[in-house]
Amino acid sequence: AQTVTQSQPEMSVQEAETVTLSCTYDTSESDYYLFWYKQPPSRQMILVIRQEAYKQQNATENRFSVNFQKAAKSFSLKISDSQLGDAAMYFCAYINTGTASKLTFGTGTRLQVTL
Amino acid sequence: GAVVSQHPSRVICKSGTSVKIECRSLDFQATTMFWYRQFPKQSLMLMATSNEGSKATYEQGVEKDKFLINHASLTLSTLTVTSAHPEDSSFYICSALTHRDTQYFGPGTRLTVL
């Protein structure tokens, strides 16, 4: 079974600084997708970024970028120029394209942004 | 990104009554939707996969007769919590699957059973 591990329960970053959230996963599949979702206090799950496993290029979305290391099964999220609105719970997630598109979530990392 | 709505956002009901939660994909068609439950300070727990025009697939340990799912159209799935009890109180979230194997989530429904 696939597993997703987020080893940092909580992280803190100062406004305008950069922070990296870690995620590792375990799979024997070669074709899959990886995601980072953000859940602010409103509890709405928001898609932050998506990475296809077959792509070597790291995905970026404005201030958000990933470091995808397929051989190491690592998928970290870097948030640059952190803003107060980035404070949220961040979940790393995995989909194997052959498993009816079910998401496997990590346990989440709570990010605090301080002034 | 794709937009998914969920209604109601909050509901309070008496023990023994049934509650229906709607999940709609607003700007795309979704043959597959998912229903999750989230306990405080925990990750999402998948309850069932809802497929348009067919029976839902439930995860192990989820009671089919308690959590009725109907996916009658390409934009609407409903979750009915039947004979609700206080232990059913939780945050329920739906998601809709796009053609790019990406799930977009609704804003969630907080259910409180008295």
Strand segment tally of chain A: 12
Give the uncertain stretches of chain A in residue-range form.
Answer: none
**Count, helices of chain A:** 0
**Global Rg of chain A:** 14 Å
The best one-word shape of chain B is globular
Low-confidence stretches of chain B: none
Shape of chain A: globular
What percent of residues of chain B adopt helix (DSSP H or I)? Answer: under 10%
- The total of helices of chain B stands at 0
In total, how many beta strands of chain B?
11
Mean pLDDT of chain B: 94
Q: Beta-sheet strand percentage of chain B?
A: over 45%
Question: In percent, how much strand structure appears in the residues of chain A?
Answer: over 45%
End-to-end gap of chain B:
37 Å
Strand/helix succession of chain B = EEEEEEEEEEE
Largest sheet of chain B: 7 strands, mixed
Largest sheet of chain A: 6 strands, mixed
Offer a few descriptive terms.
heterodimer; A: 115 residues; mainly beta; six-stranded mixed sheet; four-stranded antiparallel sheet; B: 114 residues; seven-stranded mixed sheet; 11 strands; globular
Q: What does this 3D model show about the protein?
A:
The complex is a heterodimer of chains A (115) and B (114). Chain A has 115 residues and is mainly beta. Chain A is built from no helices and twelve strands. In chain A, the strands form three sheets. In chain A, strands 2, 5, 6, 10, 11 and 12 form a six-stranded mixed sheet that branches. In chain A, strands 3-9-8-7 form a four-stranded antiparallel sheet, with no helix packed on it. In chain A, strands 1-4 form a two-stranded antiparallel ribbon. In chain A, a hairpin with a 6-residue loop joins β10 (88-96) and β11. Chain B is an all-beta fold and 114 residues long. In chain B, β4 (32-38) and β5 form a beta hairpin. Chain A binds chain B through residues 33, 35, 37, 42-47, 50, 91, 95, 97, 100-103, 105-108, and chain B through 1, 32, 34, 38, 42-44, 46, 49, 57, 91, 93, 95, 97, 100-105, 107-108.
